[in-house]
Amino acid sequence: MSNFQVSPTRVELFVAPSSEKQFSIALTNHTGHEATFLLGAEDLAPASDSAGDFVLLGKSASAYSLKDYVLGSANSVTLVDGETRALPFVVRLPAGAKEQGLYGAVTVELSGVVEEQLTAGAKVRSRLAVGVLTRTVEHPDVSGHLVDFDTTDGAHLLFSNRLDFKFAYQNDGNVHVEPSGV
């Protein structure tokens, strides 16, 4: 099976309207042969479940669209097996950018290889995305609070060594927040 990796998995930037910020991602080819990768940009939106995941929107734009402002130096790149290359990108915002947070992703797709063709005619392809979370205000309102905290099974009498927790967090600010703590 073909394999490749990207790093980092997420980029967070501050970009003021009518300015730009550069970043790069590292792409490594582990396919066992020379391979071409297609590069693109899409918007991100929260998934409909409560797991905190995101979905790529393809050609659709979100209310916090970033995809048209993410620019790369090429639409594809070819790497020999084992090669890692830094791929430069820039987020260039227009003067009229009004949203305080814009969310998108750089997509990397292995070109020309169909991993598996399913009997119903569906094709599985190798594709990864690097989330690009951009705030447009220098001093955002970063606030929120814990809504729920419990064990995943709801049990409060604990008889095992493994303990799984779940939590829900409410973002009360005006930009994305990744809850963290000890």
Can you offer a commentary on this structure?
The protein is an all-beta fold. It contains no helices and 14 strands. Strands 2, 4, 5, 7, 9 and 12 form a 6-stranded mixed beta sheet that branches. The model has no long low-confidence stretch (mean pLDDT 83).
Distance between the termini: 39 Å
Helix % is under 10%
Number of alpha- plus pi-helical segments: 0
The helix/strand series, from N terminus to C terminus, equals EEEEEEEEEEEEEE
Compute the gyration radius: what is it?
A: 20 Å
Q: How much of the polypeptide forms β-strand, as a percent range? A: over 45%
Low-confidence stretches: none
Shape: globular
Main sheet characteristics: 6 strands, mixed
E-strand count? 14
Give a concise summary.
The protein is an all-beta fold. It is built from no helices and 14 strands.
Write the layout of secondary structure elements.
Elements: E1 4-7, E2 10-14, E3 20-29, E4 35-46, E5 54-56, E6 70-72, E7 76-79, E8 84-92, E9 101-110, E10 116-117, E11 123-124, E12 127-135, E13 144-151, E14 165-171
Parallel strand pairs: 2-12
Antiparallel strand pairs: 1-3, 3-8, 4-5, 4-7, 4-9, 6-8, 9-12, 10-11, 13-14
Keywords:
mainly beta, four-stranded antiparallel beta sheet
